[in-house]
Amino acid sequence: MLAAKIILDKDFTLGEVDPRLFGGFVEHLGRCVYGGMYEPDHLSADENGFRTDVLELVRELDMPVMRYPGGNFVSGYDWEEGVGPRDQRPTRLDLAWQSTETNQFGTDEFVQWCRKANSEPMLAVNLGTRGPEEARNLVEYCNHPGGSAWSDLRRKHGFAQPHCVKLWCLGNEMDGPWQMGHKTAAEYGRVACEAAKLMKWTDPSLELVVCGSSNGGMPTFAAWEAEVLEHTLDHVDYLSIHTYYGNADGDTPSFLARPEQMSDFIDQVVATADYVSAKRKSRKRLMLSFDEWNVWYHSHGDREKRNIRPWDSAPPLLEDAYTMEDALVVGGMLISLLNHCDRVKIGCLAQVVNVIAAIMTQPGGPAWRQTIFHPFAHVSKHGRGTVLRQVAESSYYDCKDRAAVPHLTSACVLDPDTGGVTLFAVNRSLDSRLKLTVDLRAFAALHVDEWTTLRHSDLLAENTCAAPNKVQPAVATGAGVDDRVLTAVLEAASWNVIRLTPAK
Known about the structure:
The chain is of the alpha/beta class. It has helices at about 50-60, 105-115, 130-145, 150-155, 185-200, 225-230, 250-255, 260-280, 300-305, 325-340, 375-380; strands at about 1-5, 15, 25, 65-70, 90-95, 100, 120-125, 165-170, 205-210, 240-245, 285-295, 345-350, 360, 365-370, 385-390, 390-395, 395, 405, 410-415, 420-425, 435-440, 445-455, 475, 480, 485-490, 495-500.
């Protein structure tokens, strides 16, 4: 049996978890909006055409922020065409995803949907084919009370009260050659700076997210961040980073180690941001917005395999069917986010419905939870509090991409109100159980209140419309605290949530 040990002290902390770490992402891509969130003819649709079965599942994930409308889509989006009477909205070609956009769902509908989902909208502006003026106009439309052209237009559309959108993204992945309006770092830095100024002059309460690299493998990575922040550091509040992982070659040990790469990526971006602050003699410590992250690879090549035609409206794009293996990686990525909560304040699982999503729907039919839904729901519910610094030792393994990968990856969150501790842990061994001990010497007496595990004998098991509960959490037993030491045996290839509460 493998072994790992953790020592905790309630006074040794990493940081406080910002609830916005558990956000989501909605893009006009595939069936995320049309047929996912919005399906007026569905039996569950409410008066706005929103699927209430989807809303119920989103509320179960408890996502405090929701990013919209992209993603690559936003870099060609004219927001004015998605507001006002629906019968007057034009149909356009979306060049990002070779689809037809009907504009039947736009900014106002998204804000309405967010209110019902108990989320705050996080809007992205188009800095690809458009610029600072159009971005400023959207802020005025959304946030100004009235008495100006754009705010009065919102009121004319039936929204007398401002939408009060406080969190905004200055474009999306502008470092990517695939992006409409792709720019160099210097070009983007200048336009982002000017957009930020105009937007904050319109509403000084805004928080702004500037684009970092679209992934750590970009040839311009780090140089891009350094150049962009030279222009924008004084005007923005967060730096955006994105990453996706996959296992196309079937190398499961390397795949399960990907969250270690995610942690490296975060550390590198933080170092770059701090370098710019030091160079500029600034005391500002920029926080990060990890506003796209997930597993994504199952649907690669689907357009050709499924004969999806260009310019269809809401085609079934990027509909990854997630496995038990994917759930372990997503759990590890959540652990990475928690363990960097001192600098990563916003996170957006990409995406929410149908498109590389935690929730899937059938047109006219049911909605169900994908395997990755479960670890996200667990951490969103029990991962809010103070993340503790761990002194950890674990057995380890070597894989193709990395040496000395710990079998155990974990995060420990203290609830400051109750004194309880929640342990999130993945045993990455594919064939061995792992005996975990946690030294709680600095805590008052705790006991195991609940132990939830997610595992399946088949790592490729999926939840489907026909079998929506094939992979689902279960109650585990056998963990206990003796003389302030927690002992638990984690099954091979398992996700675990152990909740400790003060003994009565």
